[in-house]
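Key result, reporting period 2: structure in, sequence out.
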């Protein structure tokens, strides 16, 4: 049921995006067609000038003929201007369509990325392998190597052993295991400091925050499957 519902959501989302893109293109095409059709005919002015020539064949003086020539040249300029307007309108509509489509695509990508991040934060970091090497002071998470200090690696090792045993360590218990003292003799803040140093050593904020989880009123635990942990 979950798989089918998820696939239906993806299909419906894809249809909505497709319909949105089609709607944007159709609206802009209709708007452009309306603008181009409502512009006056480029030859309208020339037609009027030609009509003046035909209906006023009695205009024979030099000044009158010169006036008619000026009117004819003005009609040609008007025709060229309207033609350039049509080109400008077409180019602007193409750019507007591209920008709106790009904005919609980026918006969909942003929403999708936010949903994925929310899923990661809700489910924890997905780690397929965690290899801890105490001799080399390195931890390998999903084939990505992290060089750690000896103290940070010891903290990670203790947390990994506790995770394999299914335990959650309080700050005092963590400090006790590392220092070899009883948990009652250790302070909670000491363990919290070790956790902070481990997160700082990992560097990657997303990994460090999601790898080491703080369970309210219980302690700290690695938020990964215990079967993927290997220590050498």
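The corresponding designed sequence is given below.
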């Amino acid at each position: 049921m979950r798989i089918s519902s998820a696939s239906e959501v993806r299909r419906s989302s894809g249809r909505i995006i497709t319909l949105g893109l089609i709607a944007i293109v159709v609206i802009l095409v209709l708007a452009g067609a309306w603008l181009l059709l409502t512009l006056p005919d480029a030859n309208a002015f020339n037609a009027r000038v030609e009509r003046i020539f035909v209906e006023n064949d009695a205009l024979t003086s030099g000044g009158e003929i010169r006036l008619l020539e000026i009117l004819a040249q003005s009609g040609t300029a008007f025709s060229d201007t309207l033609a350039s307007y049509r080109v400008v309108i077409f180019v602007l509509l193409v750019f507007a369509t591209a920008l709106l489509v790009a904005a919609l695509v980026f918006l969909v990508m942003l929403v999708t990325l936010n949903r994925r991040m929310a899923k990661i934060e809700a489910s924890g970091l997905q780690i397929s392998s965690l290899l801890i090497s105490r001799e080399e002071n390195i931890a390998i998470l999903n084939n990505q190597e992290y060089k750690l200090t000896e103290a940070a690696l010891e903290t990670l090792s203790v947390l990994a052993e506790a995770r394999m045993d299914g335990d959650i360590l309080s700050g005092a218990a963590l400090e006790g295991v590392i220092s070899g003292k009883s948990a009652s003799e250790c302070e909670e803040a000491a363990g919290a400091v070790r956790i902070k140093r481990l997160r700082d050593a990992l560097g990657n904020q997303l990994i460090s925050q999601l790898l080491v989880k703080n369970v309210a009123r219980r302690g700290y635990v690695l938020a990964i499957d215990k079967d993927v942990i290997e220590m050498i």
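The helical segments are 2-38, 44-55, 62-123, 150-164, 171-179, 188-202, 205-211. Residues 13 and 19 are 10 Å apart (CA to CA). This case is discussed further under Risks and Mitigation.
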